[in-house]
Design a protein that fits this description.
By secondary structure, the protein is mainly alpha-helical. It has a single domain (2-97), classed as Up-down Bundle (Four Helix Bundle (Hemerythrin (Met), subunit A)), CATH 1.20.120. It has four helices and no strands. α1 (2-21) crosses α2 and α1 runs parallel beside α4. The chain is globular, with a radius of gyration of 13 Å.
Amino acid sequence: MAAVNRCYYSYFWVARGLLFEKDVYVKSHSGVKSKFSELFIKTQLIPDKYGYYLSQLMTKRQNADYDLISSFTKEEVQEMINWTEDFLAFVKENIEKL
């Protein structure tokens, strides 16, 4: 469960950092998701799949942290790690354009 949490928060803090660079300050997780979508996904600065991944990771992190019977397979966790690594690589490669 810790890996799911770490994937989400890695993604979350990068998204929050991108918002910060645009002088957008949000306090809630849903606010980050909403503003990230508005400023980066809907404007096509960042491909749609990264908004989808954030949404999925947010739900999976909530399940991992708060649902006592929640579990994930090794393959599901690996997919979340792949999403996170893909997003981080995209941001690193495109940071000057964002």
